[in-house]
UniProtKB/TrEMBL annotation:
<keyword id="KW-0560">Oxidoreductase</keyword>
<comment type="similarity">
    <text>Belongs to the iron/ascorbate-dependent oxidoreductase family.</text>
</comment>
<dbReference type="InterPro" id="IPR005123">
    <property type="entry name" value="Oxoglu/Fe-dep_dioxygenase_dom"/>
</dbReference>
<dbReference type="GO" id="GO:0051213">
    <property type="term" value="F:dioxygenase activity"/>
</dbReference>
<dbReference type="Pfam" id="PF14226">
    <property type="entry name" value="DIOX_N"/>
</dbReference>
<dbReference type="GO" id="GO:0046872">
    <property type="term" value="F:metal ion binding"/>
</dbReference>
<keyword id="KW-0479">Metal-binding</keyword>
<protein>
    <recommendedName>
        <fullName>Fe2OG dioxygenase domain-containing protein</fullName>
    </recommendedName>
</protein>
<keyword id="KW-0408">Iron</keyword>
<dbReference type="Pfam" id="PF03171">
    <property type="entry name" value="2OG-FeII_Oxy"/>
</dbReference>
<feature type="domain" description="Fe2OG dioxygenase">
    <location>
        <begin position="218"/>
        <end position="319"/>
    </location>
</feature>
<dbReference type="InterPro" id="IPR044861">
    <property type="entry name" value="IPNS-like_FE2OG_OXY"/>
</dbReference>
<dbReference type="InterPro" id="IPR026992">
    <property type="entry name" value="DIOX_N"/>
</dbReference>
<dbReference type="InterPro" id="IPR027443">
    <property type="entry name" value="IPNS-like_sf"/>
</dbReference>
Length: 374
């Protein structure tokens, strides 16, 4: 076997790899990562190479897991209600993540939602192209995209996404794709109701009135993203989603049974194993800000896989922000949580300012709230 020198390797890369051209060709196809897989690629394009060793810092302690919390009978049984509030407080302080079961959303609805998102991404490419969006398409109610900020990001993710803003101003039914129109309307109603219940439990976990976070409009905006992670021929070279935190108050995630989601806990990556019928809940950056670091928004990521496709549905709860009009609400640490022993860590900040920073920095793995600390 011929061993090439470093200069030979660098020379071949320099002569063959034109990042800008590769990005432009990828977006010109308007078919995302699914289009690459359909074309029969055996090696992933260079823009997807992450340079990350995904085997580093993998947790070996099998006894530690993201908590699973049973919401059964919490409205009728005071002792169960109190125990659930305690478990949620502990989960939000220690993990920033937990799973909920017996949450009131039928498994059949959850399965149909996963099926609808999968059908959207697997329909004919010419149909998908009609929805394709770029980072400039801020006014679009429905956005189908893949790596829309590639000129800014270090590498591309092995993932396609369709996103719909479902509250407070949902799209007209005719604006939605027919393959998931009925189910996303139904699922968003059920998820919004569950979100309001969890915000009540979170308020109580903070020692506040159950309606406190809802009155802060934490549950007013709902963005649903349907992610599709196609099988990857070289999963060790790229990521489905890189290390990041969520720029919202709370996320409710519906994932299929493939797995791949990992949470960073005590500097180790822990798998979040799929539990059929369960939903994953995690603290967002905005909730960490207003709770003055009482609850933590933690890093998480999604690995690529030979298997699949993996499908997940992320529901992000946030106060609405209009990027066109520039209108947004201002948030700061909740006054009732502050004292001489617990002074504010963050300054009052508008959603617009936080979002602008988030989009400017991209998913670079850096702490999202650092610029807003006092």
């Amino acid at each position: 076997m011929e061993v090439k020198s470093t200069n030979q390797i660098e020379g071949s890369i320099d002569s063959n790899y034109d990042r800008k051209t590769e990005i432009e060709a990828f977006h010109a196809s308007k078919t995302g990562v699914k289009g690459l897989v359909d074309s029969g690629v055996k090696k992933i394009p260079t823009i997807f190479h992450s340079g990350i060793n995904i085997t580093e810092n993998i947790a070996s302690d099998s006894k530690l897991n993201v908590p699973v919390i049973d919401l059964r009978d919490i409205h009728n049984n005071p002792s169960r209600h109190k125990a659930v509030v305690t478990k949620i407080r502990s989960a939000c302080q220690e993990w920033g993540f937990f799973q909920v079961i017996n949450h009131g959303i039928l498994i059949s609805i959850m399965d149909e939602m996963i099926h609808g998102i999968r059908k959207f991404h697997e329909q004919d490419a010419d149909v998908r192209k009609q929805f394709y969006s770029t980072s400039k398409d801020l006014k679009k109610r429905i956005q189908y995209s893949s790596n829309s900020k590639l000129h800014q990001d270090n590498f591309a993710n092995w993932r396609d996404t369709v996103a719909c803003s479902m509250a407070p101003n949902p799209p007209k039914p005719e604006e939605l794709s027919t393959v998931f129109r009925d189910i996303i309307i139904e699922y968003s109603k059920r998820t919004m109701a569950l979100g309001c219940t969890i915000f009540e439990l979170l308020s109580e976990a903070l020692g506040l009135n159950p309606s406190y976070l809802k009155e802060l409009k934490c549950a007013e905006g709902l963005l649903i993203q349907g992610h599709y992670y196609p099988p990857c021929p070289e999963p060790e070279l790229t990521m489905g989603t890189p290390k990041h935190t969520d720029i919202c108050f709370m996320t409710i995630l519906l994932q299929d049974q493939l797995g791949g989601l990992q949470v960073l806990h005590e500097n180790q990556w822990f798998n979040v194993p799929p539990v059929h019928g369960a939903l994953v809940v995690n603290v967002g950056d905005l909730l960490q800000l207003i709770t003055n670091d009482n609850f933590v928004s933690v890093y998480h990521r999604v690995l690529s896989s030979h298997g699949g496709p993996r499908v997940s549905v992320a529901s992000f709860f946030a106060s609405p922000h209009d990027p066109v009009k520039g209108t947004s609400k201002v948030y700061g640490p909740i006054k009732e949580l502050l004292s001489e022993e617990n002074p504010p860590i963050y300054r009052d900040t508008s959603i617009g300012e936080i979002m602008a920073h988030h989009f400017a920095k991209g998913p670079d793995g850096n702490y999202a709230l650092q610029p807003f600390r006092l």
